[in-house]
Amino acid sequence: MLLFKKLPYYSSSSLMNSICLSLILHFIVLVFVSCKTTGLVKLPPNVSVPAVLVFGDSIMDTGNNNNNMKTSARCNFAPYGRDLRGGIPTGRFSNGKVPSDLLVEEFGIKEFLPAYLDPNLQPSDLATGVNFASGGAGFDPLTSQVADAIPLSGQVEMFKEYIGRLEGLVGEDRTNFILTNTLFIVGLGTNDISNSYFLSHIRQLQYDVPSYADIIVNSASNLLQELYQLGARRIGVFNIPPVGCVPFQRTMAGGIERKCVESYNDAVELLNSKLSKQINSLSQNFPNSRIVYMDVYSPILDIIIDPQKYGYKVGDRGCCGTGTIEVTFLCNHLDSTCSNVLDYVFWDSFHPTESVYRKLVVSILQKYLYQLV
């Protein structure tokens, strides 16, 4: 972090030392940027994706909530991260990598997408992408407030700060190039439907499903417009997954047989439909932009309903503890975990395993890559 501190005043006699230091910093950045992983994605000729920037919730978070002691939406403790970096928990809500990491891996940018608030964030990471997502966040400001998560407005403020830091590191022209060609990913809305509407009933007392869906879509639209104004041109928006089929909701509202809660999924489908139409409208009105609605609902639902087809044995329980309610602080070192995580669709009662995330990211990129770039 010392590299970001303002350099002290230099006298004329040491001006050359200051210039040399500046050149060294730029060289370091260039060296780190060139050290990429071997990506699997084949980009069209003369197309580059220098960085990935992510806004989202716990599905995307790679550790921004670690130092937020107010929120219960933390997982920087065992057994989270059991299969990542020697089993050291990093704040990822899974046994290993999450979609944010897998995206930069697939593009060959780097192995992990670091959290913007990571105290060990390196200067070189700014030029290749960071993560603003926060577990518990939503499009609805109340969702983030109840969870003490970083709200969407706070994630955007971090992005603005990021732009300033990047300009100081690589200059305005290079920053503009990076922003224009970066892949922006938005993954929010799950907590709005799951927690604010159905679980706590806070919003259910105020709005019917169509009205609440309109509020969420309006918030998403405002975000996309603001990102565009700040320089984003390639934006992929994940739709909301089938929250009625996650183990926790099956346990709480799925009856004795723990079936998928169809009313929850119906609400998600309605919201996704409205979101898709709004994104299509925005993409037509924003010149030189690619704003793409990406369906994760259908592929994850297919895996959950027919896990055997994808090589899994268990689709209605998580690997941690009983797999029925354990999530965040309820999934801890006192809980046993399954012997073979590759048998499970879910890691805890809300979040899929790295294996499932990997299948989803690969299929999504295969389907939407050329629309995004």
TrEMBL record:
Coiled coil feature spans: none
Q: Which GO terms describe its biological process?
A: lipid metabolic process
A Pfam family reported for this protein in Swiss-Prot or TrEMBL: Lipase_GDSL
Spell out the InterPro entries in the cross-references: GDSL (IPR001087), GDSL_lipolytic_enzyme (IPR050592), Lipase_GDSL_AS (IPR008265), SGNH_hydro_sf (IPR036514), SGNH_plant_lipase-like (IPR035669)
| UniProt GO molecular function | lipase activity
Q: Name one GO cellular component term.
A: extracellular region
The organism's superkingdom is given as Eukaryota
Q: Which family does it belong to?
A: Belongs to the 'GDSL' lipolytic enzyme family.
Q: What is this protein called?
A: GDSL esterase/lipase EXL3
